[in-house]
## 1
Amino acid sequence: MKPYQKIQILECGEPLVPIPLEQFAVESPHPYEKLGAPYGDTSPYYLRESVIAALISAQAELQQRHADWRIQIFDAYRPVAVQQFMVDHTFAEVVQSQKLDPDTLSDDQRDVIIQQVYQIWAVPSPNPKTPPPHSTGAAIDLTLVDATGQLIDMGSAIDELSPRSHPDYYVNQPDKPYHEHRQVLRDVMYSAGFCRHPGEWWHFCLGDQMWAWLCNQDNPTVSVTARYGRVAHK
Ligand SMILES: C[C@@H](N)C(=O)N[C@H](C)C(=O)O
Ligand SMILES: [Zn+2]
């Protein structure tokens, strides 16, 4: 169990609502829909109402600094079934990249690979006390684009299973613009109240267990709880 999963959830009941996609840039086609992830009647382009308001405010802050840059949405709401699908998909990718035979893996090999997968993916827990962050509608994966829709180079791709995903990977490489770009993204998201995943430059949250845990880490005199638990899109 990750430490953030011990945070108490006091669900506030705020609705999951569609993201006004016309206000943002959007990765298209959606990266997990493209892989056949089981969304059923749901869509990744939903978030809690206040999380969307905060995202709009983060983009306004971005445009104070870079008038024609925009936030590009990569992924937002993710049902637990999709979380499971992506964990399984990433597991299969690691097996393939290591040229292993999926049918003859030992238990030890499976354990090592699943731990690698869980370095960047949350466990697809069905327990309402430990929901995957994106299943709460309070987590979002994103990056930035310029006026022409070109990606601002962050030095690695979203979802890359490598040390380059760490937000500070490029901190000691000032000759490259990547750390500065990651800091712009971080600063505008923080200005709207989001927190960033400690191991992923692209994952931000507001009001879920990870966010509450990060708030408590920043200020040990407070005891913040999560206001968003797992939610099903209706
Ligand atoms: C891997 C990335 N897309 C992501 O969202 N990671 C977090 C930790 C998650 O799975 O909730
Ligand atoms: Zn994420």
## 2
Amino acid sequence: MDQLGPIADAVGAALDDLAGRDAVARMWARDHTLWQDDPTEVADRLGWLEVAGAMATQAERLAVFGDALAADGIRHVVVMGMGGSSLFPEVLARSFAPVPGRPVLRVVDTTDPALVARLSHECPPAETLAIASSKSGTTVETLSHLAVALQDVPPDQVVAVTDPGTSLAERATAEGFRALFENPPDIGGRYSALSYFGLVPAAAAGLDVDALLASAGAAAPALADPDPAANPGLRLGAALAGAVRAGRDKVTLVVDGEIETIGLWLEQLLAESTGKHGTGVVPVAGERLGPPEVYGDDRLFVAIGEHHGLEPLAAAGHPLVQLPSGGTAGLGELVLTWEVATALCGAALGINPFDQPNVAEAKAATNEVLEQGGSEIAPTPLADVLDQVGPGDYVAIQAYVDPEDGVVDALEDARTEIRDRFRVATTLGLGPRFLHSTGQLHKGGPPSGVFLQVVGDDPVDVAIPDRPFGFSTLKHAQAEGDLRTLRAHGLRAARIALSDLLEVTR
Ligand SMILES: O=P(O)(O)OC[C@H]1O[C@](O)(CO)[C@@H](O)[C@@H]1O
């Protein structure tokens, strides 16, 4: 049962507003004026509403594709993509046990050279299928990984998932890739989980695509119901918008262990969709659950599944929304419910939940650094930055490190310590993944972020074919470019020495 407490009035107002504008019906009718008069990046971004049904007609093709991989001796499937093109495959890889006799699914969405170097040892080229996933077909990380893969893997072990007509689609045909899956172009990256972007990796790993789609399909009628009592997406969207309006914009996700990594996907959906024009939901994913006294009065807790430790939070006056968890069997429903909620939250907040107006800035700054050469950035003492943290802020650790290194756990400890000491929300994003997820919110959302950037050293580098720089240079340029962009927005952002940040727990 939801316990909305201090945000109940604001949630009621959001529900009234959405009902008054006939929001649910207009959304399903693909009426872009629900969000803005200009149809650009709205009218052509609503294909996710019905994609589960459309994809059901492709289930046979996907099954044939998956069966053939196993028969051809493929043991590893590596998805190369960023943000919306890779995070749902990451959820699949981490939520489902490998299917016996089928390839193991893995995702690469980092420019950390240590991981890139390891990957080619851990996934022998003769047994590996590489999937290049990019809506635009132009994302530098994805194209760099593809270039590395093509050094060792023959084109008939490479697949492209992209929009029709992109340069990646042209390459798939010209270079004889094993398959090209052209995605419906009216679906934005972060809403693409139930399209080819999620389903091709699922089929390759031998997962039950039909079940995933059926779970979403079964949820659709309720999600189209204008009655909030019947529509969990409408209730959730109003709760998110009401929380933002009531100053509780730190939406803290507490997720069922089996599908824990859905938090990563939800983070990018919420942050990139709502974090703009100075407002938005600040999703807090993967933060350890604590006692009431470590939280400020800027939180809304959203729990998926049953958890110990929530009742004391509600009793202490923190608003709580509880959603059932269907585990892996309910993933399709969960995805569609949150997409509906996010789209309606955007309508209630008066923003377009389908664009990402600030993402290009950091990309441009990275290119500038690559062209002009990087600079030596002297680390700022952590204490100097933490001195600036106050109530209502959030501290975002942005770590350009090897995602599989133990340092990530140590950073989680540092994160918890900062949360407990300052009673502020904390996030931990791995670079450059977060640039395609929370990066939009950091720059365009509420200016309450305090950004701690750490950049791991690279004992080895990996060259990127056909580029004048390797992964290490790219990683450092991405970090520097983002730091410049955050500072250009007047935000509190600093490079911190990794050792200094880890010291915080001692
Ligand atoms: O699928 P693409 O075009 O490679 O883009 C990857 C990601 O980059 C972003 O455009 C923004 O960083 C996301 O919205 C998107 O999911």
